[in-house]
């Protein structure tokens, strides 16, 4: 009687991770493509599927991934009717960029640069100057914005080229560091309600012969984090924002294009030990780690000096069948953060970078009590998180 020998499952290889489509079909390629079509100097139209327009509006819906939109045609009938228009009529999504998280994606949208250049490569990352974790969404602890992200935004370049540029968002975003380094240029119009934002965006779009307008809605993401994308609260937000898109689309001035996109998708993670690994209670994962950055599905791990290779080995052994686990240099070489990483950004990236493939999180119940309670999560390179729509309406 022969004995069957079972092999241990092989860890995921760094090369098997689906790298975002930087330079051909990512969020960072959108505004440069639109600006190039309006004759803004030094802009490249990397999204060749898009037809130039004199007036362009980008409506970014936080948290509305391509897969989630396609799965809810009843809640979003107007946007669902536009799915075939996505990415210049190809009916395909674009990718967010790694990690698929708000601060990183908004910086990519506004600067037209991938994370390795603009320098916001995660939700929280180490500041090499202080060895502290820097929350790039909330900008805590405060860091000089233009030192952290020195490149001009596409809005600033368009404004300098004579294009009428405007941002329409919630009033409290006007003076945040993230807005200043990612989305500033031209005029900011704070509006509390979604309806007022749509009406003001349409007015701003009509205010110039060439116009570039950005508007934003946050609560699809908010309800997803709190209640999950399988909740009535989330579906209610999707229904509401679908009506907002239609409201804006019906007010487009002549020679205008509206593009509806998102900063990332989202997945729900069950609340059990198999799907949620608590770093704060796992001595193996904690060994040799000085700082834990990123978020549950996209971790930056900063090792105690001299322990980098041991931490990489341990994380790969413990998590390697569920996460793509790479050293900093491996992740950079694989293009996770774009084709090039600026010198000032290099040490912000973890010594070890862990990106979830399966429906699993690395939580930190003591360090991150609020984040550890979120139902819906995002950050990694799966299609549910990376793929976002680029719906189009033209007047």
Can you offer a commentary on this structure?
This protein is of the alpha/beta class and 395 residues long. 31% of the residues lie in helices and 20% in strands. The strands form six sheets. Strands 6-5-7-1-8-18 form a six-stranded mixed β-sheet, with helices on both faces. The protein has a four-stranded antiparallel β-sheet with strand order 11-12-14-13. Strand 5 (164-169), helix 9 (177-182) and strand 6 (187-190) form a beta-alpha-beta unit. Helix 10 packs parallel to helix 12 (232-249) and helix 11 packs antiparallel against helix 12 (232-249). The longest helix is centred in the middle third of the chain and has 18 residues, at 232-249. The radius of gyration is 21 Å and the shape is globular. Residues 1-5 have low confidence and may be disordered.
Brief summary:
The chain has helices at 30-37, 66-70, 77-81, 86-89, 102-111, 115-118, 145-148, 154-160, 177-182, 194-206, 219-227, 232-249, 283-286, 308-319, 328-333, 343-346, 383-386, and strands spanning 55-61, 94-95, 124-127, 132-135, 164-169, 187-190, 211-217, 256-261, 267-268, 276-278, 289-295, 298-303, 323-327, 352-356, 361-363, 376-377, 387-388, 391-394. By secondary structure, the protein is an alpha/beta fold.
Architecture blueprint of SSEs:
Elements: H1 30-37, E1 55-61, H2 66-70, H3 77-81, H4 86-89, E2 94-95, H5 102-111, H6 115-118, E3 124-127, E4 132-135, H7 145-148, H8 154-160, E5 164-169, H9 177-182, E6 187-190, H10 194-206, E7 211-217, H11 219-227, H12 232-249, E8 256-261, E9 267-268, E10 276-278, H13 283-286, E11 289-295, E12 298-303, H14 308-319, E13 323-327, H15 328-333, H16 343-346, E14 352-356, E15 361-363, E16 376-377, H17 383-386, E17 387-388, E18 391-394
Parallel strand pairs: 1-7, 1-8, 5-6, 5-7, 10-15
Antiparallel strand pairs: 2-17, 3-4, 8-18, 9-16, 11-12, 12-14, 13-14
Helix pairs in contact: 10-12, 11-12
């Amino acid at each position: 009687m022969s004995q069957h020998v079972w092999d241990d499952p092989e860890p995921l290889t760094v090369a098997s991770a689906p790298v975002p489509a930087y330079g051909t079909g990512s969020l960072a390629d959108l505004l440069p493509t639109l600006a190039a079509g309006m004759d803004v100097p030094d802009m490249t139209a990397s999204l060749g599927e898009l037809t130039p327009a004199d007036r362009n509006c980008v409506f970014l819906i936080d948290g509305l991934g391509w897969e989630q939109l396609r799965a809810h045609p009843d809640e979003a009938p107007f946007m669902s009717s536009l799915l075939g228009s996505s990415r210049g009529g190809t009916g395909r999504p674009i990718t967010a960029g790694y990690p698929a998280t708000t601060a990183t994606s908004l910086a990519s949208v506004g600067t037209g640069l991938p994370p390795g250049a603009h320098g916001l490569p995660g939700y929280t990352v180490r500041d090499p100057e202080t060895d502290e974790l820097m929350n790039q969404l909330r900008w805590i602890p405060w860091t000089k914005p233009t030192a952290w992200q020195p490149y001009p935004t596409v809005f600033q370049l368009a404004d300098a080229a004579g294009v009428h540029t405007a941002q329409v968002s919630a009033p409290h975003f006007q003076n945040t560091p993230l807005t200043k380094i990612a989305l500033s240029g031209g005029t900011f119009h704070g509006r509390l309600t979604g309806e007022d934002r749509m009406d003001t965006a349409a007015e701003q779009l009509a205010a110039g012969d060439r116009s570039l307008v950005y508007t934003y809605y946050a609560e699809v993401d908010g309800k997803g984090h709190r209640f999950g994308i399988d909740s009535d609260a989330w579906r209610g937000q999707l229904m509401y924002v679908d009506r907002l898109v239609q409201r804006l689309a019906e007010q487009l001035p002549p020679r205008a294009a509206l593009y509806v996109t998102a900063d990332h998708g989202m997945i729900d993670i069950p609340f059990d030990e198999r799907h949620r690994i608590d770093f704060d209670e796992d001595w193996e994962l904690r060994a040799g780690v000085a700082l834990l950055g990123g978020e549950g599905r996209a971790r930056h791990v900063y090792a105690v000096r001299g322990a980098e290779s041991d931490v990489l080995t341990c994380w790969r052994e413990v998590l390697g069948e569920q996460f793509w686990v790479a050293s900093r240099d491996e992740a950079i070489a694989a293009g996770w953060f774009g084709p090039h990483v600026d010198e000032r950004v290099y040490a912000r990236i973890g010594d070890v970078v862990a990106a979830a493939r399966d429906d699993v999180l690395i939580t930190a119940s003591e360090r991150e009590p609020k984040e550890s309670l979120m139902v819906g999560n995002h950050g990694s390179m799966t299609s549910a998180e990376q793929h976002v729509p680029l719906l189009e309406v033209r007047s």
